[in-house]
Amino acid sequence: MKKELSNKTYTLNAIIVFAVIIIIWFIATEQGLVKEIILPKPINVVKYIYEGFTQNNLIADVAISVQRILLGFLASVILGVPLGILAGNSKICDSFIRPICEFIRYIPVPTLVPLVMVWVGIGENAKIVVLFLGCVFQLLLMIADDASAISSDLINAGYTLGATRLQSLTKILLPAMLQRIMETLRMVIGWAWTYLTLAELFAANSGLGYRILKAQRFMQTDAIFGLILTIGLLGLVTDRLFMLFNKKVFHWVE
After folding, report:
1. Is the pLDDT reported for residue 236 higher than 70?
2. Which residues span the domain enclosing 5?
């Protein structure tokens, strides 16, 4: 049986892990065990991040990247959640929706980038489409699983009491699976952050991914590390916001 930990102990353990990694990183670079072009010094990475936000308008690129994430993610939610609920609640719909999604989700998104550029050009829409493609098929299938996990007895009880199909969907199924949906969205928006750099690597002149590509051309590893850490922190903040929201709204769930 998994042993329960207090929140204080859990947080302390997490801090220890990060502290150990930073200490090893610091020692390795300060002692010259690793060349700085391969692994920059932590102080140089922190300096890049600080100067980026205070002097080099990094906040503007953060805002642009966050906007792209939100648009791509919201587009996938608008399409993926309703279709996923249909697939999870109807065998007929599932037979039409799930097989094609199961097939497409195994196609690597980077291989679709040339097609995206042909279909929608190389402008802002292309970046949003890449993020959308990276999320929507996984999201749809996970929502379908969330819907199918709801007990059929609950739905049948509604029919017994006279509920219509629409009422069973809006009054029974959706409330029953809402907490599952929010946990699924929390996971999927994490995937959106992983596709951000890919979306911003082609025909971009702004965003965190563009900055990474620009830093790579000039072998500025401190900048690359700083930008990677920035993306990681933004993704972590997004995850924590979803977690706090879920705990606040669904406070009865362990």
Report:
1. yes
2. 1-34
